[in-house]
Amino acid sequence: MNPKKLKIVLIGSGNVATHLAQALYKAGFSIAQVYSRTLEHAQQLAQTIHAEYTDNVGELVPDGDLYIFSLKDSALQPVLESLPSLPGIFVHTAGSVPLSLFERYHDRNGVMYPLQTFSKQREVDMKTVPFFIEANTQEDARLLRDVASALSSQVQELSSERRKTLHLAAVFANNFTNHLYAQAADLLEKNELPWDLLLPLIRETAAKVERLHPKQAQTGPAVRYDKNVINEHLKMLSHDPDKQAIYSLLTESIHKMD
Amino acid sequence: MNPKKLKIVLIGSGNVATHLAQALYKAGFSIAQVYSRTLEHAQQLAQTIHAEYTDNVGELVPDGDLYIFSLKDSALQPVLESLPSLPGIFVHTAGSVPLSLFERYHDRNGVMYPLQTFSKQREVDMKTVPFFIEANTQEDARLLRDVASALSSQVQELSSERRKTLHLAAVFANNFTNHLYAQAADLLEKNELPWDLLLPLIRETAAKVERLHPKQAQTGPAVRYDKNVINEHLKMLSHDPDKQAIYSLLTESIHKMD
């Protein structure tokens, strides 16, 4: 089947759902309908991709080919339990949810996991986003691979088990990293320094590991075990126990890994 | 004085010393001499910039205009204590060392702090590196500003107190961030997945905060407080207490900041 002829239904209207829907639309797919628990959210997204919308699972398009579930992990099961009987393939986009979760509810199932951080306020070049595919038949895996390949140049199959590990690693590399940027920004702003002084450093920190393994790229007082500086820094953070705890734990961890 | 006519002596041969020496050389400055405690290191660096070299403070060029101390913080004071009497300006390149440290040893003192991560294996475009200048006279501050401005397009004056804060923020934004990359890489490699699958995510994580404040850019299970995923991740890390401790602390910290 030509994947662009698929009748696609999107369940969800969050960050991943929004970016995926818009990338599919731009790539020439048509999305028949967007579902969200909040009608306004369904409508907002649907309007950008000329789709129908609903907040009622009873009104879901009954003859879809591909139902894409892009929901907060904890919302997935309740929604699946509330669904009427539907045809086609059920696909989710989550890193940590095993394919087997669908099996109780449906026969043809798959996963299309885009390994990227998506915020509504920011465009992402989907071509560079690695997609990880899984399905319970080879035929459906091939179909999902075709869909993902129309969006991205990096598509590969990966088991649920490995996808879960990849997602956990991504939490370290993105969620936690971004939080350290936020802590650094907070520290500067509390001292009336503009946080964007750090941007050239943040840029180079990321660019450096394109060529050097992060273990080779490590610099700073912790890896030199420069006790004077470390103690001075801990003292500076004595009024901010959260930052101090992060400083201690990560300094110790760098020293251990070295 | 034309800053390119300065007789410069470099004390140190580490990452910062190496990058700074090579940038000065490329910009048309001449470095008369490199000192390192290890003769071989002094020689290696000196050869790339056509300088003399020594491992003996007694042999330091006695008529320098600018002595740049680019040493591990803890080595700075012992070296200063061992010096013969010298003319010119003493300058260091450290984030956390106050200008006042020099005052016991010398009359004309300054700081040129490049806010960047430097490794010998990787070139850095010095033009984009922010330099922070301090000196105990306006005239010397102007001279150091002229030197730094020949290397970088981002030069400003900053007090010792504020530089210390900036350095601490840089530890979060670079040293700790890079360590999270290393932890993520370790996790993937232990599960036989190539760590560079994360590169598009790392790239976007850094690029995202060029436009969004890190607090707005935060995504993932911690900020959604997706307890299922968080507990699953903690279980996956039960055999790796270091990673588990980092996961717990940073997840809690993201949740608190939100």
Describe this structure in words.
2 copies of one chain form a homodimer. Chain A is α/β, with parallel strands linked by helices and 258 residues long. Chain A is 47% helix and 13% strand. Chain A is built from 10 helices and 8 strands. Chain A has helices at residues 15-26, 39-48, 73-82, 138-151, 160-190, 199-208, 214-217, 221-224, 227-236, 241-257, and strands spanning 8-11, 31-35, 52-54, 66-69, 89-92, 109-114, 131-135, 155-157. An 8-stranded mixed beta sheet of chain A has the order 3-2-1-4-5-6-7-8, covered by helices on one side. In chain A, α2 links the parallel β2 (31-35) and β3. The longest helix of chain A has 31 residues, at 160-190. Chain A is elongated, with a radius of gyration of 22 Å. The first copy, chain A, starts with 7 loop residues before the first strand and ends with a helix. The model of chain A has no long low-confidence stretch (mean pLDDT 96). At the A-B interface, α5, α6, α7, α8 and α9 of A face α5, α6, α7, α8 and α9 of B.
